[in-house]
Protein 1
Amino acid sequence: MRNFADSLVRRIDELENPTVVGLDTKLDYIPQHIKDYAETLFPEEPTKATAKAIWLFNKEIIDQTCDIVPAVKLQYAYYEMYGYDAIKTMLLTARYAQKKGMLVIGDCKRNDIGSTATAYAEAIIGKTDILLNDTMEMSGLDACTVNCYLGIDGVKPFIDVCKRDGKGIFCLVKTSNPSSGDFQDLELTSGEKLYEAVAAKVSEWGEDLIGEEGFSSVGAVIGATYPEQAVGLRKIMPNAFMLIPGYGAQGAGADEAVASFTAYGKGGIVNASRSIMTAWQARSDYFGPEDFGKAARFEAEDMKAKLNAALHNRKYV
Amino acid sequence: MRNFADSLVRRIDELENPTVVGLDTKLDYIPQHIKDYAETLFPEEPTKATAKAIWLFNKEIIDQTCDIVPAVKLQYAYYEMYGYDAIKTMLLTARYAQKKGMLVIGDCKRNDIGSTATAYAEAIIGKTDILLNDTMEMSGLDACTVNCYLGIDGVKPFIDVCKRDGKGIFCLVKTSNPSSGDFQDLELTSGEKLYEAVAAKVSEWGEDLIGEEGFSSVGAVIGATYPEQAVGLRKIMPNAFMLIPGYGAQGAGADEAVASFTAYGKGGIVNASRSIMTAWQARSDYFGPEDFGKAARFEAEDMKAKLNAALHNRKYV
């Protein structure tokens, strides 16, 4: 039986690279020549032109990084913003990345209860016969992010699909944004903070899904921007696999990003979105717009080197 | 300037009916003859046949209830589960309901930060120029549900769109499910429970969006299954408009559903999904499958009568 966490750990080890490329593709990130070309293909259909531009961009980023980066993270919000053709592009991107050997994480932060949570789980990470007269696999991503405010009712349907299909989830525990403390840092009468209480539950929920490599497919999202808290969260969730946003554009460096990794330098994957996608803009002295894919690869190599250096000389323990 | 809460309050008053029909359309709810017909239209394309069946069902429910029910609630999970053609159907359903005079609430429980939250807000309730060479209005629902675990960073982008376009949000405060207490009922050192702390913030966030009718377009989701808590939550959020799930299939009755209404019987809207959509099954002694729309109308009239009776003789105050 496939276990998502095992697949992820092994691919990270193979590539010696605990990073995930975030494809939060905004039109601003796409070079003008790609957008112009897409418009010539669909001059009267802006939603199709938009979706095509995003696809051409995503495909090149995947082609340039699939042999050095283990996973991609798709941010649902942007695809939804650009309309249903873009949603189709997102699913196509997921398929393509999987075909190229990458694991695909849907960053959708979904949450609901009972049969509705099951519908989300099936939509995003499931593979079932849900259409009239069909057995088509719908979305079939490898993992997704989940918001746990509704309690176990909202999480169990996802865990059930994880068990059945060898998929994974990352539960929001301590997010990377400045106001994450508004509720997450509230102090409980138990002596914990709310995010610590959530972490304890996530650890418990994941016990059945710990793979051969020692990590659970029920993982957690821990912002790189809160390294002290991240160190404590590893103690509360010794077996959770951590998805770590906040590196780069949000201000955290490599030292902060690896704070929740185990003492052996395992159990985490660090996301970078904007810095990879817009490397062609940031490094315009080296790369032209037509080399946006190569610039992304260069940036990904740079990030890999920085994370490995930080793992060999830990600042937060 | 349009204010969502004003529009909602006025339409509820006009129809004397504080209910919203939930279109959480599952294939199981749709009569066989509709599904058969959809398959004859798209024999080789199951995603299109599925989407067509859902559309035909939704349209009839709207036609039969638009003159007696002020709003519809679209549950995103099911449309996402059935694929991108179904997502298109969801947007078409939203447009059609609006054309028929109904307000449309997207039950998507979205949550993210910064520009990503803005993307969700624009995708769901916005109307902006975001496509290549186009000024198309994308989704343009009247309101949506939001999960606040990420704090104000995740909510402000939605509030900004509400202010700009006269839209609304409903923040998850105390959800209707059995395990909603896992985190929401945790006791804080401040003496509040977590859901009360969330409620206090929601009330504060909504101050700028209080309309002429005295209610804010920053509303709250309060499960009908927790009536005692609902009474307390009205005190914490005197101006919030409450979206109330849990009536009917989840076990709460009319008395429980109106617990968070003001002393004047205002400021709430009660959702029913399954009981309306499957009225043709539950009342099969009166209605055949071909009369599923009439059965839905009958059930909606029944619910209206029960809620008004409960409002005239309040059990929870």
Protein 2
Amino acid sequence: MARIAVVAGDGIGPEVVAQARKVLDAVLPGVQATEYDLGAARWHRTGEVLPDSVLTELAGHDAILLGAVGDPTVPPGVLERGLLLKLRFAFDQYVNLRPSRLWPGVAGPLGNVKPGEVDLVVVREGTEGLYAGAGGSLHRDTPAEVATEESLNTRHGVERVIRDAFARAGRRERRKVTLVHKTNVLTHAGSLWARTFDAVAAEHPDIETEYQHVDAAAMFLVTQPQRYDVVVTDNLFGDILTDIAAAVTGGIGLAASGCINPQGAYPSMFEPVHGSAPDIAGQGIADPVAAVLSAALLLEQLGHSESAARVNAAVAAELASRAPGATLRTEEVGDRLAAHAVA
Amino acid sequence: MARIAVVAGDGIGPEVVAQARKVLDAVLPGVQATEYDLGAARWHRTGEVLPDSVLTELAGHDAILLGAVGDPTVPPGVLERGLLLKLRFAFDQYVNLRPSRLWPGVAGPLGNVKPGEVDLVVVREGTEGLYAGAGGSLHRDTPAEVATEESLNTRHGVERVIRDAFARAGRRERRKVTLVHKTNVLTHAGSLWARTFDAVAAEHPDIETEYQHVDAAAMFLVTQPQRYDVVVTDNLFGDILTDIAAAVTGGIGLAASGCINPQGAYPSMFEPVHGSAPDIAGQGIADPVAAVLSAALLLEQLGHSESAARVNAAVAAELASRAPGATLRTEEVGDRLAAHAVA
Ligand SMILES: CC(C)[C@H](C(=O)O)[C@@H](O)C(=O)O
Ligand SMILES: CC(C)[C@H](C(=O)O)[C@@H](O)C(=O)O
């Protein structure tokens, strides 16, 4: 029986996670869920972000389902570094998986892209690059201040995520992998990524490959998002590109993500890309689709592909039936999705 | 009399620069232009990228007009680091100015954004950050390889570009500056940028300010580009965001840029954002609008605001009159723009 740790978090986090659990319970009866109180609220109450004891407990689960953490009242970096990134790094979640589909029924912002035409997945590296936390400053608050941030990239880290991208592409219809970097400026890291990509590509002659600079990819995601299948890229580029991909496919309200440790040595973590949205929290109007799609990624990762497919089908039906501009009720959407997934 | 160095460069560079010069000659008779042969062609012929003697000669000009350099046959980094970035750094061009307008007559990719609604300018830092060239690698081509890239940020460098952004906002109608960074992850550099921004903002109570993380800004440039007036950001974020801004306003075929040393201690450099486009070079079908708009930025920088306005008006008329899908001839567009600018 799957043991899931649930971090509902702040703002709309608990509201959308409740729907994701409803759907999980429906398609996988008997799943054991344990709630963990982490996020802005706990930090305000106790000053704690992620006690070691909790980290150890989380490690004992098969997966983590996260809603959203954060609040404007918490200084930048506290929860990001102390909780989200801490989990990604501690649990070696080196595949940050972010699929984007323009679902039928969803009106994207692009005039000449039709629903069904975009179906891409970004495999974002999750444990290296500028997220390593290697930086510092000198002479702070003086005219002589200097601040650095260092991007750390290893062959080990780059190769494993590129291999994952090729493996995913091999299981998809179009079998294409695009490497995105900035090799013309970041020549050291860029060269490592490009050489590693070429070496792995040589082992996969059946998979089409291309390379794009990050600025060009940002542009093409707007002008021709249809061209992408699997995109593999570094941590920061992936952060930016996946928000563009989400924007062109209907917004982060629909975007799911998984922070995955593919070998299962540690639990993987699944969360909607959206934040805690304090402005609409407590009103019961947050769209739970991103959280539910994240639960589908969780099911997939735990080997329940059929259940995952049923959840995706329920989401497809939900989105296709939405009247443009109609207000949605979080609970009702969750009920409909759970019912459809087992119908 | 203005002394301009012209680097036409490779591919479509010479074709579009010829039109920009036509327009410059029309609105500013007697401008002295000297051509410099730099780029992929010269590198292939002589192995030289930017000889010191040429750098010294360039320094003696009032401004540089650049077409495009590069070619797939040149290894990544050679011309970028050796020529483009070399000039930006050597001439301390710390303001990398990239305006984006959705011109009437231009069909952008966004369904619900109307021409005239987008008019923003990105003030991208041009001499620091990850472009500093501070990086290296160890154990290259072994499983132990590690590669680093370091982002270097100084109070000096950050403050001057933020001041420039506020000064520009003060001359615009909406008077708003958005700082874009990633303070929640890049906490050291992010804090320097945020504290400096707040300090400069305090001196400008008449200017509206906001902060956004780079991933959110990338998304909002797609979903609500209308919300931006002046955006100030670091070198790499600016590289990515300006390609998104170009994409949502009709593509890099229309995007101009200036690498500016505001004090005029060194020449500023003006260039279209697009590259050398070898695929369409030599056919006379490249759109020279981006090069001509770059010439308008050059005029503005040299104090010829009225001439710059006339060039912009000519571009507006040209774009408004284009029939959708019609093929354009580079020369003809240049002729029309030059004629209109002096009419
Ligand atoms: C909250 C932040 C640390 C995080 C990131 O930058 O990875 C977020 O933007 C994301 O994409 O999951
Ligand atoms: C060619 C490259 C070095 C350059 C950059 O990254 O700045 C280009 O992308 C640009 O935006 O001018």
